[in-house]
Amino acid sequence: MNRFEYVRPESVADAVKALAGVPDSQALAGGTNLVDLMKYDVARPSRIVDINRLPLRDIEETATGGLRIGALVSNSDLAWDSRIIKRYPLLASAILAGASPQLRNAATTGGNLLQRTRCYYFYDPATPCNKREPGTGCSALEGVNRIHAILGASENCIAVHPSDMCVALAALDAIVHLEGPDGQRTVAFGEFHRLPADQPQHDNTMRAGELITAIELPASGFASYYTYLKVRDRLSYAFALVSVAAAFRIEAGAIAEARLALGGVAHKPWRDRGVEEWMRGKVPDEETFAYCAQALLRDAKGAGQNNFKVELARRTIIRALRQASAATPQDQSNKIVR
Ligand SMILES: Cc1cc2nc3c(=O)[nH]c(=O)nc-3n(C[C@H](O)[C@H](O)[C@H](O)COP(=O)(O)OP(=O)(O)OC[C@H]3O[C@@H](n4cnc5c(N)ncnc54)[C@H](O)[C@@H]3O)c2cc1C
Ligand code: SF4
Q1: What is the dihedral of CA 320, 324, 326, 332, to 10 degrees?
Q2: Largest CB tally within 10 Å, which of 85, 214, 263, 286?
Q3: Ligand 2, pocket-test mutation among 136, 158, 198, most atoms within 8 A of CB
Q4: Which residues of the chain register pLDDT less than 50?
């Protein structure tokens, strides 16, 4: 049993103070990941800052026509909010493709961004893992790596970020609102998570003592042409092997704007703005989709057991682009809906 201090602040300012006061303190939101990590002896916080009493459960309109989602809004409340369903169905669809109803009821918006990788070795303190204990090595490189990264990996870590919700947030160009000892700041979603490089222990660019307070969605939700397509070993209650969030603005039969983010393939939701730009003005047809998949995966490579993911990703990208451009999004039970 590891001893820890438990505090339950009532305001964001007090929570930030409590988090910054002890180096290995951690926020507790829904607890669906953190509590597991503590049970596995992977996380050993000396102070738990329970943030559940903070006033961060609202979804509000922004002055620029978007929405500001409080960090404690549950994944269920977010996915079933009528404004999200109507204006950001890509986000609702991605959330509903993840976990189970019970987990989504407990899991929060902020916690979803900060959930840790599902690499088997990360959860097993008996094995070397650079993410858990920097400098010990990466057991997955030559081990069981069926679920691991094919893009952006390093010789120090080939883990993937497991979230579905974050793939949609990346495609939508969301903004992360943070508050820490030095005040408030915002980070573009694409800059929030990071690639492993030589510091795989850091999943993101948050600073010590910072709290996620909200996620902001820009006005454009791509509600007409979109899909979230998740391929996994089981139809529910399984993390993505590959997922694709695709969205278009289509005008006069041509692509006016394209968004494409991949999940399950890298240490962060994977976007390539060069490929999205290339699609502008093109007709959304099989030739365009094939070129796009090829370009997105030009540097993809497996580590052995996950080699199959490169071809799986190619096919999933093409299928997602086809669905999105035809306005026939995938529903969370894997049926095509209109
Ligand atoms: C069996 C199982 C299956 C799952 N399947 C999927 C899936 O298919 N797809 C998917 O996307 N997810 C899946 N999940 C993961 C789930 O979505 C996450 O565990 C959840 O979103 C985490 O949210 P939480 O509020 O419970 O976070 P917590 O467990 O409370 O916290 C997670 C981390 O975030 C930190 N934190 C939380 N909130 C804040 C904040 N506001 N500011 C700063 N730090 C914060 C905590 O300190 C901790 O480090 C699954 C989980 C389980 C257990
Ligand atoms: S892939 Fe990353 S998380 Fe998994 S064992 Fe290697 S260093 Fe650890």
Answers
A1: 80
A2: 263
A3: 158
A4: 334-338
- pLDDT for the residue numbered 334: 45
Strands 225-231 and 242-251: antiparallel
- Of 87, 49, 89, 90, the closest CA to residue 71 belongs to 49
Buried residues in 285-320 as b, exposed as e (16+ CB within 10 A): eeebbeebbeebbeebebbeebeebbebbbebbbbb
Beta-carbon contacts of residue 29 (< 8 Å; ≥ 6 apart): 51, 52, 71, 72, 107, 108, 110, 111
| Residue in 40, 117, 119 to alter for ligand 2 test, most ligand atoms within 8 A of Cβ | 119
Angstrom CA distances, 100 to 107, 163, 269, stand at: 10, 13, 21
Whole-angstrom Cα distance, residue 329 to residue 320?
8
Question: Quick check: 93 and 329 in contact, CB under 8 A?
Answer: yes
From the alpha carbon of 137, which atom of ligand 2 is closest? 7
Taking CA atoms only, the protein residue closest to ligand 1 atom 38 is: 111
CB 5 within 8 A of CB 48: yes
| CA distances for 178 relative to 13, 34, 76, 201, angstroms | 12, 20, 22, 20
Kind and range of the H or E run holding 12? helix 12-21
Gap between the Cα atoms of 163 and 152, Å rounded: 17
- pLDDT of the residue at 235: 84
Q: How confident is the model at residue 335, as a pLDDT?
A: 47
pTM > 0.85: yes or no = yes
Length of the chain: 338
Residue 313 has what pLDDT? 98
Is the beta carbon of 330 within 6 A of some atom in ligand 1? no
